[in-house]
Amino acid sequence: YRQAAERTATALDARFRGDGSGFVTASALGAVVEPPRTIEDNMLTARLFLSLAAGEPTASAAQPWLAAADHALAWLFQPEVALAALPEVGVLLVADERSLLRRRFGG
Fold first, then answer.
1. Distance CA 98, CA 106 (A)
2. 43, 82 in Cβ contact below 8 A?
3. Average confidence (pLDDT) per 10 residues, the chain, 107 residues
4. Residue 95 and residue 99: Cα distance in Å, rounded?
5. In terms of Cα–Cα distance, which of 2, 25, 14 is closest to 64?
6. What pLDDT was estimated at residue 62?
7. How many Å is the Cα radius of gyration of the chain?
8. C-beta separation of 59 from 106 below 8 A
9. What pTM value is reported for the model?
């Protein structure tokens, strides 16, 4: 299952990574306007990348997954998004998961 999760995460990162921060809800290839980002999608995407990072034996192996998770978290933690996400307990869970991995792997 890990290999399938890694392939999925790699494709997700390549295809749905938004400009600046966050992941968009649809492919932006050929789009006139960049698709929107949602709190739930970015929360779940960050958790996927964090779970893959947690399964790595070293910090260097975890780094690509952590960087992808941080891309989603950077959008989630913008003040206007974070204030809109107050009812979303999952955002706090993702922040806690990232904090645990920061202590384990640094960065």
1. 10
2. no
3. 97 95 87 88 96 97 98 95 80 91 88
4. 6
5. 14
6. 97
7. 14
8. yes
9. 0.89
Distance CA 1, CA 81 (A): 32
Side chain identity at 72, as an amino acid letter?
Answer: A
SS (H, E, C) the chain: CHHHHHHHHHHHHHHHECCCCCEECCCCCCCCCCCCECHHHHHHHHHHHHHHHHCCCCHHHHHHHHHHHHHHHHHHCCHHHHHHCCCCHHHHHHHHHHHHHHHHHCC
Phi-psi label, residue 106: left if phi above 0, alpha if psi -120 to 50, beta otherwise: left
Structure token digits, residue 32: 């006139």
pLDDT at 105: 93
* pLDDT recorded at residue 90: 85
Q: How many Cβ atoms sit within 10 Å of the Cβ of residue 77?
A: 15
